[in-house]
Design goal:
homotetramer, 2 domains, TIM Barrel, alpha/beta, 11 helices, Alpha-Beta Plaits, nine-stranded parallel β-sheet, elongated, 33% helix, four-stranded antiparallel β-sheet
């Protein structure tokens, strides 16, 4: 941590800072200039509150120079991690396709979507039984009945299941059906939920909050990791900006940035980022190009009848193109298409 | 709802739209132009999915023309509402001051802050026992012990208590101590929590999500209202923008806009918006000027020792100025300072 | 400036930094820790490129600790400045009302608007002869004919004229008619224009860029100041955010923040911020509450016929309310209403 | 255009609207509902001001349903365009690499960078002689001396030159040296400059404003097109958001969206988007994956000595990787690498 003091800071102001810092067992180095005095702190600064230091007399700024997350940081874990979901790897050597319906509606619709997913090269099935919706009047998902459908479709297709949990007290229930728990963008700072999934004994896919910085996203992952679960996959799904031409703005740069800061795998959701079918393939190629470890994509056999997010779901006619992308692009980045591993 | 079709739309495309719309019992009016065909829908469109319509062939855009929230809308309830918290009004005739410590730390600190609050004209006490923190390594609040402290301080000072709840399953516990439940910005779309506070039989203060549009904020309020609770106070607390000079960007225009769209009272949190003590008074005056029905402010006797958000808390020397603002500004807007009601 | 090096930095990496820094005549203080090494730089760092330092091996971050603007900074000029426009003060002791039509359309419309402005307490007349418009098909202003109208209306009303200039090569022309030159939000980083108005011998009103940080806004002012002109008034006019309910998001906190960082006066444009007539009075009161040194407001006798921005112009019926705000609020902040100075 | 009226609208309110609309020669279709009345306008609505209609009594909203740009729209020009710069194509069949130094500093540095660019597959040389800089104290470019250096390097390398112009009155000078004129992000709404480059008889590269919507970007292009110049290449270079981990947020979705709305070629600037060398290759691959018609990249032989933007320039060791990307990715999208056309 570095404390910056202005020209108005008195000797007493500096002495107060030094006393406080040294009481916390931290070593301080003072560089005195005419306009600014810089106090560099070396040691374990976790006991010092950056905000409170900033409020002290003479202090202009307090700058943190180390990362606030530890377990998910790449600094102490330089090797990038691979997370296995029902045996399927997500990590630096592969590009994994997760696909399925946005929401589970009926057994038949879910099975059709799962077969479409598999045809496109998916090795994991996505599908929502609990849906967080902006409007209380919108379809909120089938709940446990939806989880049962997902488990049946897993039986029939062999695809492990990724599904969202929205309430800390549903975590055990969802974990009893799912191979991977998803935490959605609206719950990216629902800390009770993060802690609960951290203790559930299942891999977790953590979507980025729609207005979360990359640092806040990694702090949310740290909440999960702190409960003993490091099987976390980060998912970039678009951030909120001034641009309204797309549902969200896919922050494709977040992929390499998060991979440099953290050892966790990073995947991309091109369906929810763009919000439109026509954008799914371009954004999938962009994601793989940026180095994503996988993508998660909505598919639906009859999107015009979908209860949730129909306009962004791929339809049957798109699958061959998607399969081609999943097969041809990963090798250019030295990766194995995950869909070929089971072959 | 209005459906806009492009020049490429065929007669069949239009017929499909009309069939679907009429099946939903909605009347359609068609205006045909060279570049665009406009289909105006009149009737109850809640059964029609805007997104799915947008995905149909020939459709360029689908525009909603009525508000998606009902119970909190001012359209069916033109009179602005007053919410009473332990007898204290928040509404169009007054300007209410809610003040207290950001976090409850000790009985003494909480009592000191409550006395400071009262001195400045506060008629409600704020204080957090459950604190949602970005870092898992930060102080998370005292939990139920904190709630007991708040109840004791209420006894001593007579100030009803406003406190945050962060987990749906703590709602009954918190409601058993608190006069008003607060839902924080990170939980602004935690729908399980919104529904739980809607059923708790206590007034609710709903902070705006840090990246929520005003419409999304009102939809979150609708979740609470739908469970039978219309004692909701909206709280603007700053939004996330590109500007980093302040902790958040206070969207002061949201006050008159939300008051025009909804009958619910709207207050402002100048402490968390600005994130700095020096900004609290200017932003308080700005909030009252914009027509806020109240403000909620952090105070702390020893902010340099505060466990949470010390730098934004007002200290003893600021209270007289705050009291002056709370006394002198409301009359200019035809309102009674809430602090004088008990005199 | 502070250079932060990571644990991977070698002795050679540090030595390279020190060599480069010392070659620039800057003193370096090194604080070595396990995770980070901090190099504090003391002296004139203007010769060092922050970006290039950041690109050197072992460097994690480079933090600037002094302000990059000098002439407009309050650090070397603690007293807040008053700028005089045709004898009318804008500064810390008053609250000045600048009003008039968004665009000059006809002599009669301009005169009517000027009389409305004066009735509301305005002491300066605004009006655009050169209009920067998003669409090339929209009305672009009357040009020099508009300037002549403004000069005539100044004759009739005694109100000095504030008007926009959009091209560096029109500066002399506009300055020959205007009492104050306005630089608009779209030209906030048109450096050729900033330099030209800096040399024109007229006070300048500098609108904030719609996505400019406060620091960038002050750097733009520094461009003007550097040409010898310190008669600059900063104007906050709303920034671009995700919220679409208002035309822009008025960043009311920018008023006290900019006043703390710079000695220049800061005013607010509530018309262009909100984009709607109903928001002008609430935002005017908010601006004065936040400490603004003035406001600039659109008025129009027949806004439904206005060629530009009709919906945000105040009409005759609003003027008495505005006059009341301009008279009653400033005294609460220890300021004289500018409109009473001429009385 | 669609006008939406609320339940409070009277018959007179509707009649006023209809009178105004019909006076403009536009046909109106009225759909009356209980909550809303919808007036669909069919015909040439360019004479109607959306804002003024919105200000009329009873009107809730006015929605534009056709695009405000004409010449650059794909609606009337379904075929995507190819722009030729000194004989080099930028368009749907190729992926063009434009590379060179951010700023021209010396003849030797420029030549070295041009040779690096060519080695990586570049067929066009970029380089700035006029540099718009946030600080007036930063290096502003060599001006005409820089243009002469660029012309000499073109002689030696055969690479046509792309260079920025920042002032309308320099357009002829710059056009006398350059093969393509660049308009930078800070001038994206400098309409005088846009009109001047529209009349200069040279292809133009138009960078997106850092807070411009895609629609505003296309309107800026329309300014150029309206002066008779349709040889315009759009360049996405990152937008301003809340995220500070990257210099800007590359809006990679803007590539397919702009290509759907406009027939103009769209390229990407991965150097300025990310602001860091390590991000250039991932973002280049992402851009090509999204369908970009080219990329523009900074290279510098000695970036630590660069006067502008050193940390984002590629160095010699990166070139082979870049050449590989430019060679291997385009064929997967059915495109020819532009660098092989001259072979």
């Amino acid at each position: 941590m570095v404390i910056v003091m202005g020209p108005e800071a008195t000797g007493n102001d500096l002495a107060s800072i030094l006393a406080l810092v040294e009481a916390a067992g931290v070593e301080a180095f003072v560089s005195r200039g005419v306009q600014r005095t810089i106090v560099g702190l070396v040691g374990d600064v976790t006991q010092l509150d950056q905000g409170n230091l900033r409020g002290m007399p003479g202090v202009r700024d307090v700058v943190r120079v180390s990362t606030p997350y530890k377990l998910v940081s790449r600094e102490n874990h330089p090797e990038r991690s691979t997370v296995h979901v029902g045996g399927v790897p997500i990590g630096p050597d592969t590009v994994t396709l997760i696909a399925g319906p946005c929401a589970v509606e009926t057994p038949q619709q879910t099975l059709e979507a799962a077969l479409m997913a598999r045809k496109a090269g998916a090795t994991l099935l996505r599908g929502g039984a609990f849906k967080p919706r902006t409007s209380p009047y919108a379809f909120q998902g089938l709940g446990e009945a939806g989880l049962r459908i997902l488990a049946e479709v897993r039986e029939e297709t062999g695809l492990p299941v990724v599904t969202e949990v929205v309430d800390a007290h549903d975590v055990d229930l969802v974990a009893s059906y799912a191979d991977m728990l998803q935490v959605g963008t609206r719950n990216a700072q629902n800390f009770a939920l993060l802690q609960a999934v951290g203790a559930a004994g299942r891999p977790v896919m953590l979507k980025r909050g729609m207005s979360a910085t990359i640092e806040e996203w990694l702090m949310a992952a740290e909440y999960i990791a702190q409960r003993g679960n490091l099987d976390i996959v980060l998912c970039e799904r678009g951030i909120r900006t001034f641009e309204t031409a797309t549902r969200n703005t896919l922050d494709v740069s977040a992929v390499p940035v998060a991979q440099r800061l953290s050892h966790l795998p990073v995947i991309v959701d091109p369906s929810h980022s763009g919000g439109h079918r026509d954008l799914v393939l371009p954004l999938t190629r962009a994601a793989i190009g940026a180095g994503a470890d996988g993508v998660i994509i909505d598919v639906h056999a009859h999107p015009e009848q979908a209860l949730v997010d129909g306009p962004q779901a791929l339809v049957d006619g798109d699958l061959e193109l998607l399969a081609g992308v999943m097969r041809d692009f990963p090798p250019l980045l030295g990766r194995t298409p995950a869909g070929t591993l089971t072959a």
